[in-house]
Amino acid sequence: MIKTLRASYLNSVAQIYDYVIFRRTQFWTEKQLERYQLNCLKQVVNNAYKNTSYYKNIFLKNNIKPSDIQTLKDICKIPFLTREDVKNNLDMMVSEKFNKKRLVPFTTSGTSALPLKLYHSGYNRMVNLASYIYKCNFVGFKFLSPKIVIGGVSIPSNLVQKGQYWVRKENRLSMSSSFLNNETASSYIKEINNYKPVFMHVYPSAIFLLSKYMKKNNIKLTFKLKAILSESEILYDEQKALIKEVFQCPVYNSYSQRENVVIAVPCNKSDFLHVLPQRSICELIKPNGEYVTKEGEEGEIVGTSFDCPAMPLVRYKTGDIAVFTKEKCNCGRNYMLLKSIKGRIYDYIIDKLNRPILTTPIIFGGQNPDASMIKKMQFYQELPGKIIIKVEKEAKCRKHDNEIVNEIISVYRSKFNNRCDIEVVICSDIPLTASGKNQYFVQKLNVSQYV
Q1: What is the CATH number of the domain that holds 422?
Q2: Residue range(s) defining the domain that contains residue 193
Q3: What would the DSSP string read from start to end of 375-422?
Q4: What is the pTM for the complete model shown?
Q5: Per-residue pLDDT tens for 94-134?
C-alpha cells in the first residue's frame, strides 16, 4: 500500500515537473534557452566547488573560480571528467550536503567500458520520470497508455519456473530480455498479442531478435501497434528497418546513459535526436579536445548534468560518438540536434597498424554469414589486429563446425580487407550481460589511445 502511494505521488510530481520545466520551455527562443542553461550551469559549478573536495581541488589546480563562468563558452575552462577520474575519486565527488547513506548507489553496465559506481538522490528519479513522460509526448503518445517494456527486468523465480518471463503492473507489462531466445520467442509474441499495448519501450537487441524470429516464421501482430521506442543500446539502421517491417509501426531511437549527463529524445517530425537543454549542456568534442563544428562531423558526447546535486558531473566524457548537424527540425523547438549516435569509442576495432575501424559496417553492413546457422555472434578483441568471433550455433543447423568457421572467416576477411586476423570459436552459449543485453562486441583495449 505504501509503495503504491509512493509511486502514485512520484508520478504526480513528475507530471507537474514535466509541465513546468519541459513543456513550458520547449518552444523558447535560443537566447531564452541559453540564459536558462547559463543559470543552471552557474548553480552546478557553485555546488560542485563548495560541496565536493574533488572539484575544489580541480578548480584550485587549474586556477579557476566559480565566478569565472560568465557565459556558456566559459565551460571549456573546466577540465574534462573521465570515467577513470570518477572511479578513482568517488568519495571526493559526493556532495557534503548529502548524507551518503541516504543516497541511491548504482552501477553503470560496463558493456562498452569499465563499470562505474555512482550516487543519485531521490530527486534524480523524479526528473528522469518527468523526462520519460516528456519523451512519450514527443513521439505522440501518452505516458499512462498501456505499454510493454522489454529490457533488464527482474522476474521472480517462481514465474520463471512456470515459463513466464514477464510481470504486469498497472499500465505496464514488463518482459525480461534475459530469457528471450528462439525457444521462448513464441510465448513472448503470444503475450504481446494478448496484452495489445499502445507502444513498446525496448532494448534494440531484444526487439531485433524477436523481429528476426517473427519474419522467419511468418508471424504477425494481431493488433495495431502505435510505435516502438528503443533505448539503452545503439539502434543500427539494419535493425531499425527490420523492426519497422515486422511490427508495421514507427521505430524511434533515443539516447541516454545511466549517468544521465545528456538526454536526447526522438521526434515524430524528423529522424533527428533532440538534446534536452533543460537537463544538461551537451558538447561534441574531437579527439584533440576541440569542438565539432562541421555538418556530418563526428565527436564524443560530453555532458554536464543540471540534475545531479548529490554527485555533480561536469564535462563528463561519455565515450559515445554522435554525428553533428546544423539542420533544424520542423517541430519548431530550438534544441541542439544529433543526426545519429554512431556508437561508442569502445565500439572501434583496432587493426594491425593500430588504426580504428568502426564496428557498425563490419557487424551489420553488407554481406553477412548465413543467418540460419547462427543463433548468436559476438566480436571480441584484446590485441590490436586480432579479432575473435564467438558463435553460438542454431540448434537445427546441420553444418559441421569447420564449415561454419570457414564461411564466417571468408565473409569477415573480406569485410576487414585483411586489416585484422580472424579466429572463430564455436560456443555452447554466449551469455547476455547482467542487464539482459546482447553484447555484439567486447573491446578490452584502451581504444582512446588509438582513436
Answers
A1: 3.30.300
A2: 140-249
A3: EEEEEEEEETTEEEEEEEE-TT--S-HHHHHHHHHHHHHHHHTTSSEE
A4: 0.78
A5: 999 999 888 988 777 544 445 578 898 878 777 888 888 88
